[in-house]
Design goal:
alpha/beta; five-stranded parallel sheet; globular; binds guanosine-5'-monophosphate
Length: 205
Amino acid sequence: MNKKGQLIVISGFSGAGKGTVVKRLVEDYGYSLSVSATTRAPREGEVDGREYYFKSREEFMNLIDYNGFIEWAMYVDNYYGTPRAFVEKELAAGHNVILEIEVQGAMNIKKQYPDSILIFLTTKSAAVLKERLIGRGTESEAVIAKRMKRALEESEDMEQYEYIVVNDDLDTCVHDVNSIIVANGCKAGENIDFMKAMKEELKAI
Ligand code: 5GP
């Protein structure tokens, strides 16, 4: 029987290591990762179609008009959206799909896909978050202060998530996130078709 895939939303503080965790989930467990479209300019090293599909505002607006996104949001002056076709195709094929998106998008997904799993990644403390941002060595003091302020705002949204996972040790974090997804897939509510088929088979035997 072809079971539909699960839709997994991962959000978290900037500096909590979302990108690294998601990369490991894809490599270690074979999750499908949705590549978003954005109007922001590529950062150094980013490749069109790999990190994002980089679009002009006009192209992005056209995609909205054609119902090309399952969700989109504005974040710090730029648009970000999850392309519909990939997600629908992967879910129908029974693959588990990860979206790495911010909170407005996450809430939007939950409305449309009530069975989706919402996971928020955090460091174990605010002090560690700040240390990580400083440790990157790429951000000025002013930018770090801005990111910390943003983290305070995002902490209000944390409560809207179903799972909060601390990324202290990377292996543990990746393992924990995968365990949540596996457990969710075993819920009776996720297996109604399977149970029906099993009953029919038992009757027929
Ligand atoms: P960045 O510009 O740093 O790559 O991403 C900024 C924020 O946008 C991050 O919180 C990221 O998770 C979020 N984001 C990336 N893609 C999408 C998307 O398709 N939809 C939404 N709602 N947020 C996204």
